[in-house]
Write a structure and sequence with these properties.
This protein is α/β, with parallel strands linked by helices. Helices cover 40% and strands 14% of the residues. Bound molecules: pyridoxal-5'-phosphate.
């Protein structure tokens, strides 16, 4: 085993917004012996996970599973549907939207990057009217796809995907709608079919509670049709042969067998709890977390209450206090990892993950670690966030049976 010189007692608090803590049930499932990926047992597993994952995306269409991180599924979404030189309209909500835009450029597409200026754009969700306005001007239909991030993990802001769909339809534009919900899936309400999304991109290590290593493309009929003429080079990522072989539960290459055991277990856990209950639990924890931030007298990164993320909360630090110094103090003293500020927000915020198997007490411990760390860093606090969050979490509980 790798020797580390940091061995505090107890479990590490992995409170970054992905990877999220992997529940024991899933770790045990992953530890089963690897089986023959061409054998009959594997085919049954393949069919089961391919059927059940559709319920999480809320789709009747194929979901492609790759043995890759989310970034690979981003590339798959673009290369399967688009051709060199195609214009794509991408919306800047934060760091992950920016990385996807850079990838589009690297692949030979022409991304047009729109959004609200400066930090403002990183504090609000997608402004669907800006997309509609741009598409209305594109009379020649040069724009082939609209790309948006559903849950912007760098800021803790969600976007209204149904409103984006409406904007595209209102403009009478044929562009495909590609959506990244890598950190939203299985934590925040998502509806691939109902919202008319053409490709939904997701990953394993956030709401699905798995380790990193598998990712997804949910694919509409329109996207499958576009794939027939799309000319960007692709081989490993090509949907065609994968979907064909998936019909019998297999893949054209060696899939990630053990992570698929984990996926099967994760899907069972989510179905046992009920998808709507999972969403409600995330909303409840996010609300209590925001109550804590408010009580500390600090600001939540998301400036629009209509689109607060249920997955994570971005906390802005007062000027003169480097958020990464605070994170380091918390890591060293309390063995807890928090998300760093990314891109434009480097040093100006930290991110609290409350996703996956999070519950009331895991959130309370996390907030206690934050509060102690903020005090040790000398940040002046208006009051106790821990007390505020406890009040919030008990407000809807009964005191006796
Ligand atoms: C985590 C994340 C990614 C990147 O996924 P990897 O698995 O790190 O490749 C992309 N977009 C969003 C919104 C994410 O949260």
């Amino acid at each position: 085993m790798l020797k580390l010189d940091f061995h505090p007692a107890g479990r590490h608090f992995l409170q970054i917004p992905g990877p999220s803590p992997v529940p024991d049930r899933i770790l045990r499932a992953i530890s089963y012996p690897t089986i023959d990926h061409r054998g009959p047992e594997f085919g049954a597993l393949g069919l089961q996970v391919l059927a059940n994952i559709k319920k999480i995306f809320k789709t009747e269409q194929p979901v492609v599973i790759y043995p890759a991180s989310g970034t690979g599924a981003w590339e798959a979404a673009l290369t399967n549907t688009l051709s060199p030189g195609d214009t794509v309209l991408m919306y800047e909500t934060g760091h992950f939207a920016t990385l996807w835009q850079k990838m589009a450029e690297a692949l030979g597409l022409k991304p047009e990057f729109i959004g609200l200026p400066g930090i403002e754009g990183w504090r609000r969700g997608v402004q669907a009217d800006m997309i509609e306005e741009r598409l209305r001007k594109d009379a020649q239909h040069a724009i082939k796809a609209v790309c948006v991030v559903h849950n912007e993990t760098s800021t803790g802001v969600t976007s209204d995907i149904a409103a984006v769909r409406k904007a595209i339809d209102a403009a009478g534009h044929p562009a495909l709608l590609l959506v990244d919900t890598i950190s939203g899936l299985a934590s925040a309400d998502y509806r691939h079919d109902e919202w008319g999304v053409d490709v939904t991109v997701s990953g394993s290590q956030k709401g699905l509670m798995l380790p990193p290593g598998i990712s997804f493309n949910a694919v509409s009929k329109k996207a499958l049709a576009a794939a027939k003429t799309a000319k960007l080079p692709k081989a490993f990522w090509a949907w065609g042969e994968i979907i064909e072989m998936n019909a019998s539960g297999y893949w054209p290459y060696t899939p990630n067998t053990n992570l698929l055991y984990g996926l099967s277990e994760a899907l069972e856990m989510i179905m046992e709890e009920g998808l709507d209950n999972v969403f409600a639990r995330h909303q409840r924890l996010a609300k209590a977390c925001r109550a804590a931030v408010k009580a500390w007298g600090l600001e939540v990164q998301c400036a629009d209450p209509a689109v607060y993320s249920p997955v994570l909360t971005g906390v802005m630090t007062p000027s003169g206090f480097d958020a990464d110094v605070i994170r380091k103090i918390i890591y060293q003293n309390f063995n807890m990892s928090l998300g760093t500020g990314l891109g434009k927000m480097k040093g100006g915020m930290f991110r609290i993950g409350h996703l996956g198997e999070a519950n009331d007490l895991s959130l309370m411990a996390t907030l206690a670690g934050c509060e102690m760390g903020l005090k040790l860093a000398g940040v002046p606090l208006a009051g106790s966030g821990v007390a505020a969050a406890m009040n919030d979490l008990t407000s809807d509980k009964r005191s006796r049976d």
